[in-house]
Specification:
This protein is an alpha+beta fold. The protein has a single domain (about 1-150), classed as Cytidine Deaminase, domain 2 (3-Layer(aba) Sandwich), CATH 3.40.140.10. The protein has 3 helices and 11 strands; from the N terminus they run E-E-H-E-E-E-E-H-E-H-E-E-E-E. It has helices at about 15-25, 70-85, 105-120; strands at about 1-5, 10-15, 35-45, 45-50, 60, 65, 90-95, 125-130, 135-140, 140-145, 145-150. The strands form 2 sheets. Strands 10-9-8-7-3-4-2-1-11 form a 9-stranded mixed β-sheet. The chain has a two-stranded antiparallel ribbon with strand order 5-6. It is globular. The protein starts with a strand and ends with a strand. Bound molecules: zinc ion. Zinc ion binds near residues 95, 97, 105, 108 and 127.
């Protein structure tokens, strides 16, 4: 899937990542929120999302909350960074909402603002629902909604 920002920057999401997330918006998984981080690379103004992590044992999964508290997500990103010689890195995160068409909650916005204070590069924040996804690019505290540019 290719997403596009208002100023024509592209965000590609690898098919494997799409399939992985799709499994968590199907029954019975969608009954508890799920999530993880995106690992990928920056290509000039564009972002490639190549892999993602999925819920780990120490994460909190509730019907309307996903808390990514397992240190394994960060460890996975660090490992990818080392293995790739510094090209593959944390580029954002995803989680699910148990609805057809998700929109960010106030808690989501707060969480993303906190993350954006740590990372200078643009980050991708994605919420998956049963029918659609909500996705934005965040940088310097600003969120810009992304539109789907190719269906895949
Ligand atoms: Zn949320």
């Amino acid at each position: 899937m290719i997403l596009r920002t208002g100023d024509d920057r592209l965000v590609s999401i690898a098919p494997m990542v799409e399939r992985t997330i799709a499994a968590y918006v199907a029954d019975p998984e969608i009954q508890k929120e799920a999530g993880g981080i995106f690992i990928g690379s920056y290509r000039g103004p564009h972002i490639e999302i190549n892999t993602c992590t999925t819920p780990m044992p120490r994460d909190v999964r509730r019907p309307t909350l996903f808390d990514r508290s397992d240190p394994g997500h960060q460890a996975t990103a660090l490992n990818a960074w080392k293995m790739s010689g510094g090209t593959e890195t944390y580029v954002g995160e995803w989680h699910t909402h148990p609805v057809d068409d998700p929109i960010p909650s106030n808690l989501d916005l707060q969480t993303w603002r906190a993350v954006m204070k740590i990372f200078a590069d643009p980050l991708i924040f994605l919420i998956a629902g049963r029918r659609s996804i909500w996705c934005c690019q965040g940088k310097c505290g600003e969120l810009a909604t992304l539109t789907v540019s190719g269906v895949g």
